[in-house]
Amino acid sequence: MTMSMTEINWYPGHMKKTKDLIKENMPLIDVVLEIVDARIPISSKNPDIPVFAKNKKRIVVLNKSDLMEKSELSKWKEYFLKVEKADAVVEISAETGYNVKQLYACIDKVSKEKKDKLYAKGLKKVNIRIIVLGIPNVGKSRLINRIVGKNSAGVGNKPGFTKGKQWVKLKDGLELLDTPGILWPKFENREVGFHLAMTGAIKDEILPLEEVACAFLSKMISLGKWNILQQRYKLLEEDYNEITGYILEKIALRMAMLNKGGELNVKQAAYTLLRDYRSGKLGKFGVDILENSIGEEE
After folding, report:
1. 137 partner at 20 to 30 Å CA-CA among 46, 109, 183, 261?
2. What is Dmax (Cα atoms) for the chain?
3. Which segments within 144-213 are labelled E, that is strand?
4. Following CA atoms 108, 66, 176, 25 in sequence, which dihedral angle do they give, to the nearest 10 degrees?
5. Cα–Cα distance for residue pair 253/246, rounded to 1 Å
6. In the predicted model, is pLDDT for residue 2 greater than 50?
7. pLDDT for the residue numbered 188
8. C-beta neighbour count of 292 within 10 angstroms
9. How many other C-beta atoms are found inside a 10 Å radius of the C-beta of residue 279?
């Protein structure tokens, strides 16, 4: 049975508490770090954050950028600067530490005006307070661990791991407030829900795994990546079919994924496909389409 977006409990009680926590602490904040998954910059973008960040400096952090081609990242950076009106955009990998130092440079740049004003008033020490916002499983806690240099924030492998708020002291007069990841109240766009599921931003149990895998296969084919599927899963030319469920069965067949009774284990094939994408084994690409996103904003 196909599950609709409205049948899913996207907004449990702790999400509302986190939203209230953010509103309560926002007057103390100077810079908002909005973390998104570089593979799905629009689907992983909480539309509430620009509202929270009104009149605050906002840096969009494209995390997991090591799973994207440079040319595509450049287009997304331009998009967030011009269309989303971010004060700065930086590409990083919290997992590997790539470009994390550049984030400090961005923070210094966007907070310079405030610091200069306070220094002009005679203050000798100025602290800039930062808040980290983003949906679950975009790498917020891993980023904090990177910039702090120790495990000050708990890190989990499952969405929604961080609990409560955490103030973390950084170097160079920076104080950072970490919060749990939050989703938004409703997903009216079915594609957004599936994109979140493809990248692991929501738990695999929320949407039917086979449906998510089929949607991902359709996306790969539309992006002209059939040859990658062929090579990875030993598929034949004759295995190509517009019915993605058929291709998923062929993956199970070619990779000898069978249940005890000898039947094709399509669920295992679905899991393997999505796991391979999330780890970069199917290439560096995203599933959000930039042209569609720009068209919606204009």
Report:
1. 109
2. 78
3. 166-169, 174-178
4. 110
5. 11
6. no
7. 67
8. 10
9. 9
Element (H, E) at 179: none
- Tokens 């808040």 identify what position? 131
CA-to-CA distance for 276 and 213, rounded, in angstroms? 11
The structure tokens listed for 166 are 């955490």
Q: Strand pairing partners for 60?
A: 34, 89
Q: E strands along the chain, which residues?
A: 31-37, 57-63, 88-91, 128-133, 166-169, 174-178
| Under 8 Å between Cβ of 277 and 216 | yes
Structure tokens at 187: 């997903």
Q: Does residue 44 contact residue 134 with C-beta atoms inside 8 Å?
A: yes
Is residue 143 within 8 Å of residue 134, measured between CB atoms? no
How is residue 16 written in tokens? 């509302």
For residue 204, pLDDT over 60 is answered with yes
pLDDT tens-digit readout, 220-271: 999 999 999 999 999 999 999 989 999 999 999 999 999 988 899 999 999 9
CA-wise closest residue to 103 among 157, 55, 142, 137: 142
Q: How many CB atoms lie within 10 A of CB 82?
A: 11
State CA 275 to chain mean position distance: 15
pLDDT band at 80 (very low <50, low <70, confident <90, very high): very high
Please give the structure tokens belonging to residue 40. 């799905």
Is residue 273 within 8 Å of 213, Cβ to Cβ? yes
Structure tokens at 11: 């907004």
Neighbouring C-beta atoms of residue 135, cutoff 10 Å: 25
Cβ pair 209, 270 in contact under 8 A: yes
pLDDT in tens, 185-199: 666 678 888 999 999
Q: Cα Rg for the chain, rounded, in angstroms? A: 21
Per the listing, tokens 């307070």 go with: 129
Give tens-digit pLDDT for 118-168.
888 888 888 899 988 888 788 888 887 888 775 444 444 444 434 556 677
